[in-house]
Amino acid sequence: MPKGNILVVDDNKSVLSALEILLSPEFDKVECLSNPNLLISELRKAPYHLVLLDMNFKAGVNTGNEGIYWLQQIKENHPEISVVLITAYGDVELAVKALKSGATDFVLKPWENSKMLATVKSAIQLSMSRQEVKNLKLREKELKKVINQDEKFIIGSSPELMQVLSIVRKVAKTDTNILITGENGTGKELVAREIHRLSNRSSEMMVSVDMGAVSESLFESELFGHVKGAFTDARENRAGKFEVANKGTLFLDEIGNLSFHLQAKLLAALQNREITRIGSNQPIPVDIRLICATNKNLSELVEKGLFREDLLYRINTIQIEIPPLRERGNDILVLADFFLKKYAYKYDKPSLKFNNQAQEKLLKYNWPGNIRELEHSIEKAVILSENNVLKADDFFLRPVSGNKTENDTLKLEEMEKRLIMLALEKTPGNVSAAADQLGITRQTLYNKMKKFGL
Protein backbone atom coordinates (compact mmCIF):
# COMPACT_ATOMS: atom_id res chain seq x y z
CA MET A 1 0.00 0.00 0.00
CA PRO A 2 1.46 3.43 -0.94
CA LYS A 3 2.62 5.58 1.97
CA GLY A 4 2.18 8.88 0.16
CA ASN A 5 4.10 11.64 -1.64
CA ILE A 6 4.85 14.96 0.09
CA LEU A 7 5.88 18.36 -1.26
CA VAL A 8 7.47 20.70 1.34
CA VAL A 9 7.49 24.42 0.49
CA ASP A 10 9.47 26.72 2.80
CA ASP A 11 12.05 29.45 2.15
CA ASN A 12 14.09 28.34 5.20
CA LYS A 13 16.70 25.81 4.01
CA SER A 14 17.22 24.41 7.52
CA VAL A 15 13.46 23.72 7.84
CA LEU A 16 13.51 21.90 4.48
CA SER A 17 16.50 19.78 5.54
CA ALA A 18 14.97 18.90 8.90
CA LEU A 19 11.66 17.85 7.35
CA GLU A 20 13.35 15.84 4.61
CA ILE A 21 15.37 13.91 7.21
CA LEU A 22 12.25 13.32 9.37
CA LEU A 23 9.80 12.38 6.61
CA SER A 24 11.86 10.50 3.99
CA PRO A 25 12.06 7.18 5.92
CA GLU A 26 8.29 7.19 6.52
CA PHE A 27 6.88 8.09 3.09
CA ASP A 28 7.36 7.19 -0.57
CA LYS A 29 8.58 10.57 -1.79
CA VAL A 30 9.55 13.86 -0.13
CA GLU A 31 10.32 16.79 -2.45
CA CYS A 32 11.46 20.20 -1.14
CA LEU A 33 10.98 23.67 -2.68
CA SER A 34 12.28 26.98 -1.37
CA ASN A 35 10.52 29.03 -4.05
CA PRO A 36 6.69 28.91 -3.90
CA ASN A 37 6.45 30.14 -7.52
CA LEU A 38 7.49 26.63 -8.60
CA LEU A 39 4.75 24.98 -6.53
CA ILE A 40 1.95 24.58 -9.10
CA SER A 41 4.29 23.39 -11.87
CA GLU A 42 5.77 20.79 -9.48
CA LEU A 43 2.29 19.48 -8.62
CA ARG A 44 1.70 18.88 -12.33
CA LYS A 45 4.85 16.77 -12.63
CA ALA A 46 4.03 14.07 -10.05
CA PRO A 47 1.06 12.81 -8.00
CA TYR A 48 1.31 14.38 -4.55
CA HIS A 49 -0.93 13.64 -1.57
CA LEU A 50 0.21 16.44 0.73
CA VAL A 51 1.76 19.90 0.59
CA LEU A 52 3.50 21.13 3.75
CA LEU A 53 3.31 24.88 3.22
CA ASP A 54 4.97 27.76 5.06
CA MET A 55 2.76 30.83 5.56
CA ASN A 56 5.40 33.53 5.00
CA PHE A 57 8.13 33.70 2.36
CA LYS A 58 9.36 37.29 2.09
CA ALA A 59 11.78 38.57 4.71
CA GLY A 60 10.13 40.81 7.28
CA VAL A 61 6.60 39.90 6.11
CA ASN A 62 4.49 37.85 8.53
CA THR A 63 0.91 38.57 7.43
CA GLY A 64 0.44 35.01 6.16
CA ASN A 65 -1.20 36.32 3.00
CA GLU A 66 1.31 34.49 0.82
CA GLY A 67 0.51 31.19 2.47
CA ILE A 68 -3.23 31.71 2.04
CA TYR A 69 -2.70 32.71 -1.61
CA TRP A 70 -0.75 29.53 -2.39
CA LEU A 71 -3.27 27.47 -0.40
CA GLN A 72 -6.05 28.81 -2.63
CA GLN A 73 -4.02 28.03 -5.77
CA ILE A 74 -3.49 24.44 -4.63
CA LYS A 75 -7.16 23.88 -3.78
CA GLU A 76 -8.26 25.42 -7.07
CA ASN A 77 -5.95 23.27 -9.22
CA HIS A 78 -5.73 20.10 -7.10
CA PRO A 79 -8.67 19.95 -4.64
CA GLU A 80 -7.91 16.35 -3.64
CA ILE A 81 -4.44 17.24 -2.26
CA SER A 82 -4.25 17.92 1.48
CA VAL A 83 -2.46 21.08 2.66
CA VAL A 84 -0.89 21.36 6.11
CA LEU A 85 0.41 24.81 7.06
CA ILE A 86 3.67 25.43 8.92
CA THR A 87 3.35 28.50 11.12
CA ALA A 88 4.89 30.28 14.07
CA TYR A 89 3.16 30.27 17.46
CA GLY A 90 1.89 33.84 17.10
CA ASP A 91 0.10 33.00 13.83
CA VAL A 92 -2.42 30.56 15.27
CA GLU A 93 -5.37 32.88 14.61
CA LEU A 94 -4.19 33.22 11.02
CA ALA A 95 -3.85 29.46 10.72
CA VAL A 96 -7.44 29.00 11.89
CA LYS A 97 -8.49 31.42 9.14
CA ALA A 98 -6.56 29.27 6.66
CA LEU A 99 -8.43 26.15 7.85
CA LYS A 100 -11.65 27.85 6.81
CA SER A 101 -10.08 28.40 3.38
CA GLY A 102 -9.51 24.69 2.89
CA ALA A 103 -6.33 23.76 4.77
CA THR A 104 -6.40 20.32 6.38
CA ASP A 105 -4.39 21.22 9.50
CA PHE A 106 -1.45 23.27 10.75
CA VAL A 107 1.69 22.62 12.79
CA LEU A 108 3.56 25.09 14.97
CA LYS A 109 7.28 25.89 14.79
CA PRO A 110 9.21 24.40 16.49
CA TRP A 111 7.34 21.14 16.04
CA GLU A 112 7.44 17.86 17.92
CA ASN A 113 8.48 15.10 15.52
CA SER A 114 5.85 12.64 16.74
CA LYS A 115 3.04 15.19 16.34
CA MET A 116 4.34 16.22 12.92
CA LEU A 117 4.34 12.59 11.72
CA ALA A 118 0.84 11.96 13.11
CA THR A 119 -0.52 15.11 11.42
CA VAL A 120 1.13 14.27 8.09
CA LYS A 121 -0.14 10.65 8.10
CA SER A 122 -3.68 11.76 8.87
CA ALA A 123 -3.62 14.39 6.10
CA ILE A 124 -2.28 11.89 3.56
CA GLN A 125 -4.99 9.39 4.48
CA LEU A 126 -7.59 12.10 3.86
CA SER A 127 -6.03 12.93 0.48
CA MET A 128 -6.02 9.27 -0.54
CA SER A 129 -9.68 9.01 0.45
CA ARG A 130 -10.52 12.01 -1.73
CA GLN A 131 -8.66 10.51 -4.68
CA GLU A 132 -10.40 7.17 -4.13
CA VAL A 133 -13.81 8.89 -4.15
CA LYS A 134 -12.87 10.84 -7.29
CA ASN A 135 -11.89 7.62 -9.10
CA LEU A 136 -15.04 5.87 -7.89
CA LYS A 137 -17.23 8.69 -9.20
CA LEU A 138 -15.53 8.52 -12.59
CA ARG A 139 -16.09 4.74 -12.76
CA GLU A 140 -19.76 5.07 -11.79
CA LYS A 141 -20.34 7.81 -14.39
CA GLU A 142 -18.80 5.60 -17.08
CA LEU A 143 -20.92 2.65 -15.94
CA LYS A 144 -24.08 4.76 -16.16
CA LYS A 145 -23.22 5.69 -19.73
CA VAL A 146 -22.85 2.03 -20.62
CA ILE A 147 -26.14 0.86 -19.11
CA ASN A 148 -28.11 4.05 -19.92
CA GLN A 149 -29.33 4.53 -16.35
CA ASP A 150 -29.84 8.22 -17.01
CA GLU A 151 -32.19 7.60 -19.95
CA LYS A 152 -35.31 7.38 -17.80
CA PHE A 153 -38.11 9.89 -17.97
CA ILE A 154 -41.21 10.88 -16.03
CA ILE A 155 -44.04 10.25 -18.47
CA GLY A 156 -47.62 11.49 -18.29
CA SER A 157 -49.75 14.62 -18.24
CA SER A 158 -52.47 13.93 -15.67
CA PRO A 159 -53.31 16.75 -13.20
CA GLU A 160 -52.10 14.51 -10.35
CA LEU A 161 -48.66 14.10 -11.95
CA MET A 162 -48.47 17.79 -12.95
CA GLN A 163 -49.02 18.77 -9.32
CA VAL A 164 -46.11 16.57 -8.25
CA LEU A 165 -43.82 18.01 -10.93
CA SER A 166 -44.79 21.55 -9.90
CA ILE A 167 -43.56 20.85 -6.37
CA VAL A 168 -40.43 19.21 -7.77
CA ARG A 169 -39.54 22.34 -9.73
CA LYS A 170 -40.04 24.55 -6.67
CA VAL A 171 -37.86 22.52 -4.30
CA ALA A 172 -35.17 21.33 -6.72
CA LYS A 173 -33.06 24.51 -6.60
CA THR A 174 -32.96 24.46 -2.80
CA ASP A 175 -30.86 22.16 -0.62
CA THR A 176 -33.77 21.22 1.63
CA ASN A 177 -34.20 17.56 2.62
CA ILE A 178 -37.06 15.80 0.84
CA LEU A 179 -39.14 12.74 1.70
CA ILE A 180 -40.88 11.03 -1.24
CA THR A 181 -43.76 8.75 -0.30
CA GLY A 182 -46.01 6.47 -2.30
CA GLU A 183 -46.84 2.85 -3.09
CA ASN A 184 -44.29 0.43 -4.51
CA GLY A 185 -43.73 0.89 -8.23
CA THR A 186 -44.97 4.50 -8.47
CA GLY A 187 -41.62 5.88 -9.59
CA LYS A 188 -40.20 7.44 -6.42
CA GLU A 189 -36.60 7.11 -7.59
CA LEU A 190 -37.47 8.74 -10.92
CA VAL A 191 -38.83 11.74 -9.02
CA ALA A 192 -35.66 11.85 -6.92
CA ARG A 193 -33.56 11.83 -10.11
CA GLU A 194 -35.65 14.64 -11.55
CA ILE A 195 -35.05 16.72 -8.41
CA HIS A 196 -31.31 16.09 -8.74
CA ARG A 197 -31.36 16.91 -12.47
CA LEU A 198 -33.00 20.28 -11.83
CA SER A 199 -30.84 21.10 -8.79
CA ASN A 200 -27.67 23.16 -8.49
CA ARG A 201 -25.86 19.87 -7.82
CA SER A 202 -26.76 18.26 -11.15
CA SER A 203 -23.14 18.23 -12.35
CA GLU A 204 -22.24 15.98 -9.37
CA MET A 205 -23.28 12.41 -8.54
CA MET A 206 -26.63 11.20 -7.31
CA VAL A 207 -25.91 8.09 -5.26
CA SER A 208 -28.77 5.67 -4.53
CA VAL A 209 -28.90 3.27 -1.58
CA ASP A 210 -31.67 0.71 -1.06
CA MET A 211 -31.89 0.68 2.73
CA GLY A 212 -34.00 -2.46 2.61
CA ALA A 213 -31.15 -4.33 0.90
CA VAL A 214 -28.38 -3.22 3.30
CA SER A 215 -27.84 -5.68 6.15
CA GLU A 216 -27.31 -4.33 9.67
CA SER A 217 -23.77 -5.70 9.79
CA LEU A 218 -22.79 -3.84 6.60
CA PHE A 219 -24.70 -0.61 7.24
CA GLU A 220 -21.78 1.49 8.52
CA SER A 221 -19.34 0.13 5.93
CA GLU A 222 -21.81 0.76 3.11
CA LEU A 223 -22.69 4.32 4.14
CA PHE A 224 -19.54 5.53 5.92
CA GLY A 225 -16.81 3.33 4.38
CA HIS A 226 -13.92 1.53 6.07
CA VAL A 227 -10.13 1.39 6.10
CA LYS A 228 -8.01 -1.64 5.31
CA GLY A 229 -7.93 -4.12 8.20
CA ALA A 230 -10.93 -2.62 10.01
CA PHE A 231 -12.56 -6.06 10.01
CA THR A 232 -11.90 -9.53 8.57
CA ASP A 233 -12.97 -8.86 4.96
CA ALA A 234 -11.69 -5.27 4.81
CA ARG A 235 -8.84 -5.96 2.36
CA GLU A 236 -8.58 -2.38 1.12
CA ASN A 237 -9.79 1.13 1.90
CA ARG A 238 -13.32 1.77 0.74
CA ALA A 239 -15.29 5.00 0.46
CA GLY A 240 -18.88 4.91 1.73
CA LYS A 241 -21.92 6.27 -0.08
CA PHE A 242 -21.79 9.54 1.88
CA GLU A 243 -18.30 10.29 0.56
CA VAL A 244 -19.15 9.30 -3.00
CA ALA A 245 -22.19 11.60 -2.89
CA ASN A 246 -20.19 14.55 -1.51
CA LYS A 247 -21.23 17.80 -3.27
CA GLY A 248 -24.08 15.84 -4.89
CA THR A 249 -27.28 14.06 -3.85
CA LEU A 250 -27.70 11.03 -1.59
CA PHE A 251 -30.93 9.09 -2.20
CA LEU A 252 -31.93 6.68 0.58
CA ASP A 253 -34.70 4.45 -0.73
CA GLU A 254 -36.94 2.43 1.62
CA ILE A 255 -35.81 4.52 4.61
CA GLY A 256 -38.68 3.03 6.64
CA ASN A 257 -36.89 -0.34 6.66
CA LEU A 258 -33.93 0.99 8.67
CA SER A 259 -33.72 -0.57 12.15
CA PHE A 260 -34.17 1.72 15.15
CA HIS A 261 -30.61 1.58 16.48
CA LEU A 262 -29.10 2.28 13.04
CA GLN A 263 -31.36 5.32 12.69
CA ALA A 264 -29.32 7.02 15.45
CA LYS A 265 -26.08 6.55 13.45
CA LEU A 266 -27.67 8.00 10.34
CA LEU A 267 -29.06 10.94 12.32
CA ALA A 268 -25.61 11.70 13.82
CA ALA A 269 -24.03 11.81 10.35
CA LEU A 270 -26.75 14.15 9.07
CA GLN A 271 -26.52 16.46 12.08
CA ASN A 272 -22.73 16.64 12.22
CA ARG A 273 -22.29 16.77 8.44
CA GLU A 274 -19.35 14.41 8.75
CA ILE A 275 -18.64 10.69 8.80
CA THR A 276 -15.82 8.49 10.07
CA ARG A 277 -14.78 5.35 8.22
CA ILE A 278 -14.81 2.13 10.25
CA GLY A 279 -11.32 1.59 11.67
CA SER A 280 -10.35 5.26 11.38
CA ASN A 281 -10.51 8.18 13.79
CA GLN A 282 -10.30 10.79 11.04
CA PRO A 283 -13.66 12.57 10.61
CA ILE A 284 -14.45 13.39 6.98
CA PRO A 285 -16.74 16.38 6.27
CA VAL A 286 -19.52 15.71 3.76
CA ASP A 287 -21.81 18.05 1.87
CA ILE A 288 -24.85 16.22 0.53
CA ARG A 289 -28.41 16.96 -0.50
CA LEU A 290 -30.57 14.26 1.11
CA ILE A 291 -33.62 12.70 -0.54
CA CYS A 292 -35.39 9.76 1.13
CA ALA A 293 -38.25 7.57 -0.05
CA THR A 294 -40.60 5.08 1.56
CA ASN A 295 -43.87 3.26 0.97
CA LYS A 296 -44.54 3.20 4.72
CA ASN A 297 -46.35 5.66 6.99
CA LEU A 298 -43.43 6.99 9.04
CA SER A 299 -45.70 8.94 11.41
CA GLU A 300 -47.40 5.68 12.37
CA LEU A 301 -43.99 4.04 12.86
CA VAL A 302 -43.03 6.93 15.18
CA GLU A 303 -46.16 6.35 17.26
CA LYS A 304 -45.29 2.64 17.52
CA GLY A 305 -41.73 3.45 18.61
CA LEU A 306 -40.23 1.98 15.43
CA PHE A 307 -38.93 5.20 13.87
CA ARG A 308 -37.13 8.10 15.54
CA GLU A 309 -39.17 11.28 15.58
CA ASP A 310 -36.05 13.47 15.41
CA LEU A 311 -34.88 11.61 12.30
CA LEU A 312 -38.30 12.04 10.69
CA TYR A 313 -38.10 15.81 11.28
CA ARG A 314 -34.59 15.83 9.81
CA ILE A 315 -35.52 14.07 6.54
CA ASN A 316 -39.03 15.46 6.10
CA THR A 317 -38.62 19.20 5.47
CA ILE A 318 -40.68 18.76 2.29
CA GLN A 319 -42.84 15.69 1.61
CA ILE A 320 -43.88 14.72 -1.92
CA GLU A 321 -46.62 12.09 -2.26
CA ILE A 322 -46.56 10.19 -5.56
CA PRO A 323 -50.08 9.20 -6.72
CA PRO A 324 -50.72 5.53 -7.57
CA LEU A 325 -51.12 4.71 -11.25
CA ARG A 326 -54.85 3.93 -10.87
CA GLU A 327 -55.44 7.62 -9.99
CA ARG A 328 -53.61 8.98 -13.04
CA GLY A 329 -56.33 8.28 -15.64
CA ASN A 330 -55.13 8.36 -19.24
CA ASP A 331 -51.48 8.30 -18.12
CA ILE A 332 -51.95 4.52 -18.06
CA LEU A 333 -52.27 4.46 -21.86
CA VAL A 334 -49.48 7.00 -22.35
CA LEU A 335 -47.13 4.83 -20.30
CA ALA A 336 -48.38 1.64 -21.96
CA ASP A 337 -47.60 3.13 -25.38
CA PHE A 338 -44.11 4.14 -24.20
CA PHE A 339 -43.37 0.63 -22.89
CA LEU A 340 -44.83 -0.94 -26.04
CA LYS A 341 -42.41 1.05 -28.22
CA LYS A 342 -39.51 0.23 -25.89
CA TYR A 343 -40.05 -3.54 -25.89
CA ALA A 344 -41.20 -3.79 -29.49
CA TYR A 345 -37.82 -2.33 -30.43
CA LYS A 346 -35.96 -4.56 -27.96
CA TYR A 347 -37.59 -7.77 -29.23
CA ASP A 348 -37.63 -6.70 -32.89
CA LYS A 349 -41.40 -6.48 -33.29
CA PRO A 350 -41.74 -2.88 -34.59
CA SER A 351 -45.30 -3.12 -35.95
CA LEU A 352 -47.02 -3.99 -32.65
CA LYS A 353 -50.02 -1.96 -31.49
CA PHE A 354 -52.95 -2.26 -29.04
CA ASN A 355 -56.52 -2.83 -30.10
CA ASN A 356 -59.37 -0.96 -28.38
CA GLN A 357 -60.32 -3.86 -26.11
CA ALA A 358 -56.72 -4.13 -24.85
CA GLN A 359 -56.60 -0.40 -24.06
CA GLU A 360 -59.93 -0.62 -22.26
CA LYS A 361 -58.68 -3.55 -20.16
CA LEU A 362 -55.51 -1.65 -19.22
CA LEU A 363 -57.56 1.41 -18.19
CA LYS A 364 -60.02 -0.57 -16.04
CA TYR A 365 -57.38 -2.55 -14.12
CA ASN A 366 -56.38 -1.05 -10.76
CA TRP A 367 -52.62 -1.75 -11.09
CA PRO A 368 -51.70 -2.68 -7.48
CA GLY A 369 -48.05 -2.92 -8.62
CA ASN A 370 -48.31 0.50 -10.32
CA ILE A 371 -45.92 1.49 -13.14
CA ARG A 372 -43.58 -1.43 -12.46
CA GLU A 373 -46.43 -3.91 -12.93
CA LEU A 374 -47.60 -2.14 -16.09
CA GLU A 375 -44.11 -2.30 -17.60
CA HIS A 376 -43.73 -6.01 -16.82
CA SER A 377 -47.19 -6.74 -18.25
CA ILE A 378 -46.38 -4.96 -21.51
CA GLU A 379 -43.02 -6.74 -21.81
CA LYS A 380 -44.64 -10.17 -21.30
CA ALA A 381 -47.33 -9.39 -23.88
CA VAL A 382 -44.71 -8.28 -26.42
CA ILE A 383 -42.59 -11.41 -25.87
CA LEU A 384 -45.56 -13.75 -26.28
CA SER A 385 -47.27 -11.88 -29.14
CA GLU A 386 -47.84 -13.90 -32.34
CA ASN A 387 -49.27 -11.13 -34.55
CA ASN A 388 -49.07 -7.35 -34.87
CA VAL A 389 -52.04 -6.52 -32.62
CA LEU A 390 -52.09 -6.92 -28.85
CA LYS A 391 -55.57 -7.97 -27.69
CA ALA A 392 -57.14 -7.97 -24.24
CA ASP A 393 -56.43 -11.70 -23.86
CA ASP A 394 -52.72 -11.04 -24.32
CA PHE A 395 -52.56 -9.41 -20.88
CA PHE A 396 -52.53 -11.72 -17.89
CA LEU A 397 -53.56 -9.39 -15.03
CA ARG A 398 -54.28 -10.24 -11.43
CA PRO A 399 -57.98 -10.38 -10.50
CA VAL A 400 -59.04 -7.07 -8.90
CA SER A 401 -60.52 -8.94 -5.93
CA GLY A 402 -57.26 -10.74 -5.30
CA ASN A 403 -59.01 -14.15 -5.48
CA LYS A 404 -57.77 -16.39 -8.30
CA THR A 405 -60.37 -18.46 -10.12
CA GLU A 406 -59.61 -21.82 -11.72
CA ASN A 407 -59.67 -20.11 -15.11
CA ASP A 408 -57.14 -17.51 -13.93
CA THR A 409 -54.79 -20.25 -12.74
CA LEU A 410 -55.02 -21.99 -16.12
CA LYS A 411 -54.19 -18.72 -17.89
CA LEU A 412 -51.16 -18.16 -15.67
CA GLU A 413 -49.93 -21.70 -16.28
CA GLU A 414 -50.38 -21.31 -20.02
CA MET A 415 -48.43 -18.06 -19.95
CA GLU A 416 -45.65 -19.73 -17.93
CA LYS A 417 -45.51 -22.63 -20.39
CA ARG A 418 -45.27 -20.24 -23.35
CA LEU A 419 -42.47 -18.25 -21.68
CA ILE A 420 -40.50 -21.46 -21.05
CA MET A 421 -41.03 -22.62 -24.65
CA LEU A 422 -39.82 -19.26 -25.94
CA ALA A 423 -36.71 -19.35 -23.74
CA LEU A 424 -35.90 -22.90 -24.87
CA GLU A 425 -36.30 -21.87 -28.52
CA LYS A 426 -33.87 -18.96 -28.04
CA THR A 427 -31.27 -21.18 -26.35
CA PRO A 428 -31.51 -24.49 -28.26
CA GLY A 429 -30.04 -27.35 -26.26
CA ASN A 430 -28.79 -25.10 -23.46
CA VAL A 431 -31.07 -25.56 -20.45
CA SER A 432 -28.76 -23.56 -18.14
CA ALA A 433 -28.92 -20.51 -20.43
CA ALA A 434 -32.71 -20.81 -20.67
CA ALA A 435 -32.96 -20.97 -16.86
CA ASP A 436 -30.77 -17.86 -16.54
CA GLN A 437 -32.97 -16.02 -19.03
CA LEU A 438 -36.09 -16.96 -17.05
CA GLY A 439 -34.49 -16.06 -13.70
CA ILE A 440 -34.92 -19.55 -12.20
CA THR A 441 -32.57 -22.41 -11.28
CA ARG A 442 -31.75 -25.18 -13.72
CA GLN A 443 -33.49 -27.78 -11.49
CA THR A 444 -36.63 -25.64 -11.27
CA LEU A 445 -36.71 -25.40 -15.07
CA TYR A 446 -36.36 -29.19 -15.38
CA ASN A 447 -39.29 -29.63 -12.96
CA LYS A 448 -41.48 -27.21 -14.96
CA MET A 449 -40.53 -28.84 -18.27
CA LYS A 450 -41.62 -32.16 -16.82
CA LYS A 451 -44.86 -30.61 -15.53
CA PHE A 452 -45.71 -29.14 -18.96
CA GLY A 453 -44.48 -32.14 -20.92
CA LEU A 454 -41.75 -30.21 -22.71
UniProtKB/TrEMBL annotation:
Q: Which Gene3D superfamilies match?
A: 1.10.8.60, 3.40.50.2300, Homeodomain-like (1.10.10.60), P-loop containing nucleotide triphosphate hydrolases (3.40.50.300)
> What positions does the domain Response regulatory occupy?
5-124
Residues annotated as carrying 4-aspartylphosphate in the record are: 54
Q: Which residues form the Sigma-54 factor interaction domain?
A: 154-383
Q: Which UniProt keywords apply?
A: ATP-binding, DNA-binding, Nucleotide-binding, Phosphoprotein, Transcription, Transcription regulation
* Any Pfam family the entry gives: HTH_8
A single GO molecular-function term is: ATP binding
- List the GO biological process terms: phosphorelay signal transduction system; regulation of DNA-templated transcription
Q: What is this protein called?
A: Sigma-54 dependent transcriptional regulator
